[in-house]
Amino acid sequence: MQILFLTLMKITSLNDEGIYMDLMKCFAENGNKVCVVSPLEKNEQKNETLLSDGNISLLRCRTGNLFGVGMIEKKVSLRCFLPFQYQKKL
What is the pLDDT of residues 21-75, one digit of tens each? Predict the structure, then answer.
């Protein structure tokens, strides 16, 4: 089975630990192909990356600023741009 996991959580590497990455690793260990899409905010000043290891792929997709910003900027980034930015990369 192929699993696409879209998250707002900042996942920087495939070695990150937490409930979501542990779940994705469990899926991958059971023979599923897993693709995780995580945001890469404008203020991070880094390039988009695609990391792969076995059955897990991590795509860090450039988005607007989501954390540590005002309510208006956050809502515009989440509701207006984020769905299209994720869809464009997939």
Answer: 899 999 999 999 999 988 888 777 788 888 898 899 998 887 777 777 777 776 6
Please report which residue ranges of 1-90 form alpha helices under DSSP H.
19-29, 71-75, 82-89
* Cα–Cα separations (whole angstroms), residue 33 to 30, 54, 81, 90: 9, 9, 27, 15
Q: How many other C-beta atoms can be found within 10 angstroms of the C-beta atom of residue 38?
A: 22
Would you place residue 14 in the very low, low, confident or very high pLDDT band (cuts 50, 70, 90)? Answer: confident
Burial zone of 14 (CB within 10 Å; 0-12 exposed, 13-18 middle, 19+ buried):
middle
Q: How far apart are CA 84 and CA 58, in angstroms?
A: 18
Its sign, for the CA torsion 84, 35, 41, 51, is negative
